[in-house]
Design goal:
By secondary structure, the chain is α+β, with helices and mostly antiparallel strands. It has four helices and six strands; from the N terminus they run αββββααββα. Strands 4-3-2-1-5-6 form a six-stranded antiparallel β-sheet. Strand 5 and strand 6 form a beta hairpin. The longest helix is centred in the N-terminal third of the chain and has 9 residues. The protein is globular, with a radius of gyration of 13 Å. It starts with a helix and ends with a helix.
Length: about 100
């Protein structure tokens, strides 16, 4: 399993991570939450489907991972409940194979 610090580091290093999505295991509806990085934006780090209608944007990966926008808690705080589905739009196993080896 990929841990939160590792994924945050990938965002900071600008490895292909746009369209990363996950859901919280405790959510019976398994609502997908998207996070990503768009280098051309002034606030390149973003979260969709969170406590803020329309999502939110940040200037750093650290802000993205520590913003309390998932039921009042951050992604970092809720990581043990995360089911990571895709990184950079790819299934996690494929992304790991292509980017880590």
């Amino acid at each position: 399993m990929i841990d939160c610090d590792f994924l945050q580091q990938q965002f900071e290093n600008k490895v292909p991570v746009d369209e990363t999505y996950f859901y919280f295991r405790s959510d019976s509806a398994e609502i997908e939450h998207y996070i990503g990085y768009l280098p051309e934006s002034a606030l390149p780090y973003w979260i969709g489907k969170c406590d803020i209608p329309g999502g939110c944007e940040f200037k750093s990966a650290e802000e993205l991972f520590t913003a309390p926008v998932f039921d009042g808690k951050s992604l970092q705080q809720r990581w043990s409940d995360v089911e990571l589905c895709a990184i950079g739009g790819m299934p996690v196993a494929d992304w790991v194979r292509d980017n880590i080896g």
